[in-house]
Structure formats: C-alpha cells, structure tokens
Amino acid sequence: MRTHLGLKQWKCDHCERAFDKYTSLTLHLSAKHSEGEQPIFKCEVDGCDKSYAMKQTLRVHIRKVHEGIKPPLIPKICELCGKSFQSNALLVRHSYTHTKDSPFKCDVCSKMFKSKYELSDHTMRHKGIRNFVCPTCGQRKTTRHDLRVHMKYHNEEVQFPCKLCSMVFTRQPNMKRHMRVVHLGVKAFPCPHCDQSFGKAETLKHHVMTHTGEKPHACSICSKRFIQSVALKTHMKTHNKMK
User: Is residue 8 situated within a structural domain?
Assistant: First the structure.
C-alpha cells in the first residue's frame, strides 16, 4: 500500500534521498555513501564515456542506448472507467478522482492534494518561491505551468471572451466561473458559521478565517499576521518605505 500511495519511509541519513524498499536503500548506501574507493563500472562501447556505480545500471544503459532494447510498456488500466496509464503512479493518482481521496496534506493550511507534486507546488506558494520569470514583463511565477498560462496574455493565444461583458479569459473554466458568479449570481459556497454565501471556494475560505481567527500569513519583520497573502504584500511595503 505504501508503494501505491507513493510513500517512501526508508530515508538516507547522508542525503535527501528516500526509498519505498529497504533493499533499495541498502543499494543506495553501498553505491553512494560506502567508505573507501567505490567501484566504477564504465561503458566500453567506443565513443561512450558513461560510468555508473552499479553494474545493473550499466547493463540497463547498454540495452537502452547501444542495443536499442527497451522494456515493453505495459499499460495500467483503471478497473472503474477503463482508462489506461503509462505508470502505476499515474493510475493511483487517477484513482483519487473516483474515490475523492486526497492523501497529501499541507502542514500550513491543512489543504489536501491528490499527489505529492501538487502539494509541493502548493507549499512553494506558501514560501513565496517563484523561480520562473516572464521574459516579456518580468513577472515571476511559482511553476512552469503558471508561467505558460501567464504567457498566453502576451501571446494572445487561445482566449475565451465573456458574451455578456468585455472580460476575456485564457482558460475556459475561468470564463465559466465568471459567468456563473458574476452574471448568474450563483453562490454555491455557504458559510458554515453565518448566513452568507460566496461564488468562489477561495473567497469562502478567507471569509471562514474571519470566524476562526486564523491568519496564516505572518510578517517576518514585525510578526503581524494577515488572512490573505496580498494583504501581507501591501503591509511589507510599509516596512520598505521606512527603510
């Protein structure tokens, strides 16, 4: 079950690697962290300078690169809907759409995610990590996907205009949500603490924090806390002016 869920409980004490099997950890320790001179297995094919710490890895390299032998791809089939996937990890992630499970929890805001990669992207947003820079306007984004979506504004690629106003969207779901919330007045997210309802789940989340007193965004200079990150950014400008 840990393999299906992508959990890796065997952690290396010398680096950040983790493994789902103890045998994999022992192989890693002997290859990367064993004392003394480590064995090196070099590829003897002319013109190839590849070398590996494990003989098994060298064999895989020779079969794939020099002999053109690739292991047969056995698709993983979902028993509930019949969709096929190239790996078991993708199948497990897809299965959450049927079970509605989200096993990966954020330690900061308790939001749940279907994969550790989605959780990793979400965690970077909490930390303010934005490694991808727009070459046109210089705006920074957290993930490569966020940057691609942003670049559509500059490239004027696929656009979804609202039929009732001048708003234009780069994603159809955003346009549909705009129609539903702004023009149809649908507010499908009721507050569990009062009689108010909201058109967006994110707006409801911020509203609920006014009841619970939760303020997840803290100023690193004066420790003042805020509900939304945009409020924290505005607050930080006051410190910059003082400097």
Answer: yes
Q: Angle CA(39)–CA(44)–CA(47) in degrees, nearest 5?
A: 125
User: 148: which residues sit within 8 A by CB, 6+ positions away?
Assistant: none
> Does 53 reside within a domain?
no
CATH number, domain at 231? 3.30.160
Q: How confident is the model at residue 199 (pLDDT cuts 50, 70, 90)?
A: confident
What pLDDT, in 10s, does the model give residues 6-57? 677 778 888 888 877 777 777 777 767 766 555 577 888 888 888 776 777 7
pLDDT at 179: 87
Residue at 17 is within a domain: yes
Task: Report the C-alpha gap between 243 and 229 in whole angstroms.
Answer: 21
Q: What is the pLDDT of residue 3?
A: 62
Q: Does some domain include residue 188?
A: no
Instruction: Please compute Rg for the chain using Cα positions.
Output: 25
Give the mean model confidence (pLDDT) for residues 161-188.
83
The two tokens of residue 242 are 């003082």
Residue ranges in 100-199 assigned as alpha helix (H): 116-127, 144-155, 172-178
Four-residue CA torsion sign, 190, 191, 193, 194: negative
Residue 192 has which token pair? 């569990």
d(CA 56, CA 210): 58
Please count the residues of the chain: 243
Domain span including residue 222: 213-243
Q: Work out how many domains the chain is built from and give that number.
A: 2
The tokens describing 159, both together, are 């656009």
- Distance (Å, rounded) from C-alpha 180 to C-alpha 166? 16
